[in-house]
Write a sequence for this structure.
């Protein structure tokens, strides 16, 4: 036990009339929405790295947060784990997620890293058995250490590739041991800063083989969880091999992995790629590869990944609309890949940030479900494409240009444009989120 969160009681649902900042106003985990508990719809997860490992630095300044567990010893790592489970008990969320480097101190070599990781897995496993959340997913940090400055799987040095592969093996083992429901890979530095020293074809092939090895090993040890890739555009490198959903899907198709690997999609990364979050979710849903989400937001006046807690119900509602349309989460969930602002120093700030974010997500999911139940948006979408249900229209897709041209001439086809009705659709959405 620690006293970091001393005096902060477990958060309870008090309803929308509550003025208590440490109460859920929208998130009632046992409320039933469409025959499913709200907790089971949202499957909230706390991110170990931002909540307990981040020290408050940014590109222009160093550490601002003071935490008693900061340091590179097993004793401090266990204190960090104890504090994490105290926060979990306060929030009552069903899941958490971690990188290996978040939960274990950095060792002198792989062997020491592995020993440290195994000892921390034992410690965390004991705390899980005593009650508390489950592991949504584990992953390996293959980007922070200087050895990965030129990438991990795509590194020009085969010894770095080997070290990364061995590290991922230990992380899959840890995730499997703790009953993780997914394993995530994201390429923080899998890209290039200049083409002048980069062999694109070689690096792409290395990344593809690395991912295939992960799939093969997971199958070999009987890991039943879902393997996920998290698209990561441009930051910090100029080019990324996992830029967005479309890029990753092409990558999976190239290496024959599109049927076994799905996506963990982050709101902030979608924005950096020049997309909306709902676009990336809709595309992943259409391709059948939507697995899980990292829920956060960026500051739209900044050009980098600020990882702020979500606070915009309309944005969140559109995201969950796509999640629900795709069938909802199975092994995936809503992981708060979000961190406090570097001026938010107090323990209560961390609790309040999660409470507010969970409420925003609950309100957004309720609105998304109501929109789907109402059916107006989908009916208007279906009406827009209804002409394609005509047999003559469908026949064009198996026809050729000459046949289609002959039909246009014979029937005197000269179509008039039809309204896309965008403003009316936006007004419909606003009925549910205002």
């Amino acid at each position: 036990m620690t006293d970091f969160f001393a005096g902060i009681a477990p958060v309870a649902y008090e309803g929308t009339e509550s003025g208590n900042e440490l109460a859920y106003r929208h998130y009632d985990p046992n409320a039933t929405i469409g025959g499913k508990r709200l907790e089971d719809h949202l499957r909230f997860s706390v991110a170990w790295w931002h909540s307990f490992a981040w020290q408050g630095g940014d590109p222009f300044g160093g550490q601002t947060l003071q935490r008693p567990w900061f340091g590179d010893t097993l004793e401090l790592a266990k204190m960090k784990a104890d504090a994490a489970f105290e926060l979990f008990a306060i929030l009552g969320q069903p899941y958490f997620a971690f990188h290996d480097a978040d939960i274990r101190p950095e060792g002198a070599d792989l062997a020491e890293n592995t020993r440290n990781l195994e000892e921390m897995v034992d410690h965390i496993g004991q705390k899980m058995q005593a009650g508390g959340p489950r592991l949504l997913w584990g992953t390996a940090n293959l980007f922070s250490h200087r050895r990965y400055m030129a990438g991990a799987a795509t590194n020009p040095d085969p010894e770095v590739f080997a070290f990364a592969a061995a590290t991922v093996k230990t992380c899959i083992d840890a995730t499997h041991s703790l009953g993780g429901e997914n394993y995530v890979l994201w390429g923080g530095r899998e890209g290039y800063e200049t083409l002048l020293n980069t062999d694109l074809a070689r690096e792409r092939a290395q990344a593809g083989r690395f991912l295939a090895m992960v799939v093969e090993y997971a199958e070999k040890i009987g890991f039943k969880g879902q393997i996920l890739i998290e698209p990561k555009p441009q930051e910090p490198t100029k080019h990324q091999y996992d830029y967005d959903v479309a890029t990753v899907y092409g990558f999976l198709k190239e290496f024959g992995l599109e049927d076994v690997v799905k996506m963990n999609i982050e709101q902030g990364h979608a924005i950096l790629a020049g997309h909306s979050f709902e676009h990336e979710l809709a595309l992943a849903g259409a391709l059948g590869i939507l697995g899980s989400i990292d829920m956060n937001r960026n500051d739209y006046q900044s050009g980098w990944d600020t990882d702020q807690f979500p606070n915009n119900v309309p944005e969140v509602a559109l995201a969950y609309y796509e999640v629900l349309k795709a069938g909802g989460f199975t092994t995936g969930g809503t992981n708060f890949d979000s961190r406090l602002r570097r001026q938010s120093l107090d323990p209560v700030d961390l609790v309040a940030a999660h409470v507010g974010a969970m409420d925003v997500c609950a309100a957004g999911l309720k609105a998304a479900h109501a929109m789907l139940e109402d059916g107006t948006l989908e009916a208007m979408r279906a009406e827009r494409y209804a002409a394609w249900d005509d047999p003559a229209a469908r026949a064009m897709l198996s026809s050729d240009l000459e046949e289609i041209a002959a039909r246009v001439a014979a029937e005197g086809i000269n179509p008039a444009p039809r309204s896309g009705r965008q403003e009316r659709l936006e007004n419909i959405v606003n009925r549910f989120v205002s």
